[in-house]
Amino acid sequence: MGKIISFANQKGGVGKTTSCVNIAASLGMLGYKVVIVDLDPQGNTTSGVGIPKKGLKGGTRELLSAKMSAEELLIETPFQNLWVIPTNTALSSAEFDLFEFEDSERRMQKALEPIKDKFDYILIDCPPSLGMLTINAFTASDGVVVPMQCEFYALEGLSQLMITINRIKKVYNPDLTVSGILITMYNGRLLLSMQVMAELERHYKDKLFETKISRNVKLTEAPGFGKPVFYHDKNSKGAKEYIEVAKELSTRI
After folding, report:
1. Which of 118, 103, 100, 119 lies closest to 24 in space, CA to CA?
2. What is the CATH number of domain 3-252?
3. In 3-state terms, what secondary structure has residue 147?
């Protein structure tokens, strides 16, 4: 049975979607069958794997409302072993739609159940908030990957996120774990980066990925071409680092 992993951080601009897309593509390159579920109304994951958001027959809003099944919504991307359940701006109203259902926290869990046996990994790109969409993702997931930058505000956000994960674990999903904290946009020459890393190692050492994602021009360029960075420039530093993170993740969960 496939493992479901959410990528979450309530702070925007931390490389969450970039990490989800590139780890998914890297796992595909390593031979695993992977689905990305785009649960962020911005839809950057959808466009990041080359799928136009206009003209979609449906997306994660229809998935959560059970108007369409996961099988109906799956789109095979041009990239090895990689599929996506897309989204568009219609998802922005789904947060309110969910309150109409008695099982509002378990809509994603039920929706993904029919495809879990068909894939090795299902990665969910969560919105930058801790609302009902993210709660749905956590309730469905085996683990959470937390991408974050080395800055002090990020440390505060991480504490809040950990509290939310523990609450979901107690109430809805006792098997939920933190699969790892992934440092993104890293510059080891900055004193601030070293200070934040020291704090992270003090409190979360066992959760930190060994590989950090450096600031990299190719990582910034790739979404504009609708490609994961490996397919944009396989020799780039970003491509190599995400392959290493994918290898590490595959041993954690």
Report:
1. 119
2. 3.40.50.300
3. strand
